[in-house]
Amino acid sequence: MLINIVLKRITLFFAFLLGQVANVFASEAISLISDCPLVETNPNAVVVLDAKTSPIGGWSHIREDNFPGLKHDRSSYAIGSRAGSISEGSCSDTEVLQTTLVVKYSDWDQQHANGVELVIDQADLAIGSLAYLVMDLKLNRIGSYIPSVPELRDTYQQYDAQINWSEFDHGKASFGISLFEEGALDQSSESLNLEYHLDIDQVRYFDKWIRVSIPIASFETFLEQEYRRKNAKPEVVSNANLYGFRLTAETSRGKQLRNILGEQWHLDIPEVYKELSISLASVSVIVK
Q1: CATH of the domain spanning 2-287, picked from 3.40.50.300, 1.10.10.60, 2.60.120.430, 3.40.50.2020
Q2: 3-state class of 19 per DSSP?
Q3: Which residues make Cβ contacts (< 8 Å) with residue 33, sequence separation at least 6?
Q4: Residues 147, 74: Cα–Cα separation, whole Å
Q5: How buried is residue 99: exposed, middle or buried, by Cβ count under 10 Å (0-12/13-18/19+)?
Q6: Is the pLDDT of residue 222 over 90?
Q7: Does pTM surpass 0.90?
């Protein structure tokens, strides 16, 4: 039994290394879905979220008395039991999670105003055994607000010379996608995280169902404790078990103006939000 466990872990380690080499230049693939979300038929797929049957988890810091300047009714930003699943008009038999994800541009305090966060009900799903993450979603024009670069430059014109706009924001629908092991929600202990930054061209994909496939080897991997990161060794990554999934809105490089300005940043700098209205039907991981 012990020999089998050791052999399994060695196999996963080398499979993970091969995946890293094969996907060193890989990125996500975005494909249009003709009408409605697809039914996942891949026998190697493990469902992380099915909006029709899965409990929806996450958080929202947004209340009636905070985050001034948001564009829509506060109920639009609810997550989980407050948002529930709704039926899409064009796909009457398809349940989806519909919410608007929000990220701040200026302050890093509660920079992710809300987010989808799920615990995966699948024991012993080693990260080294995974090939892809797959999401079926729709970015909704109504309910989204994505400031253009000229709009942001106008708002923050006083600091224009200090901002490298290519490293701040491109005016795209940007998402942060995280996978993590058990314990990652407790920052007091070191835990493994995988992170991927997804940019969707809203001009091309607004109001269209899309399938996004991301190679697991394209995720950034790191160990984190008390929000401090350090590199994770390949064998640590390959042998860790997948525990959870997280989806948030993001700036194009995951930074806020406070990161860029440092001590020059102050609370009087105007806050601007990126608001991404999504219909999320499913999330799966594909086992090798």
Answers
A1: 2.60.120.430
A2: helix
A3: 136, 208, 209, 210, 211
A4: 19
A5: buried
A6: yes
A7: no
* Tokens found for residue 233: 């060794």
Band (pLDDT 50/70/90 cuts) for residue 250 is: very high
Per-residue tokens: 160: 């224009």
Phi, psi of 72 (to 5 degrees): -135, 175
Polymer length in residues for the chain: 288
The helices-and-strands tally (H runs, E runs) of the chain is: 5, 14
Strand 220-225 versus strand 228-231 pairing type: antiparallel
Instruction: Report which residue type is found at 164.
Output: N
Taking only the tens place, the pLDDT of each residue in 56-76 is 789 999 999 999 999 999 999
Residues 128, 239 contacting (CB under 8 angstroms): yes
d(CA 8, CA 27): 28
Q: In this structure, what DSSP letter does residue 72 have?
A: S
Q: What is the DSSP letter of 151?
A: H
Other C-beta atoms lying within 10 Å of the C-beta of residue 199:
15
More confident: 171 or 17: 171
Label residue 190 exposed, middle or buried (CB < 10 Å: 0-12, 13-18, 19+): middle
Three-state secondary-structure class, residue 275: strand
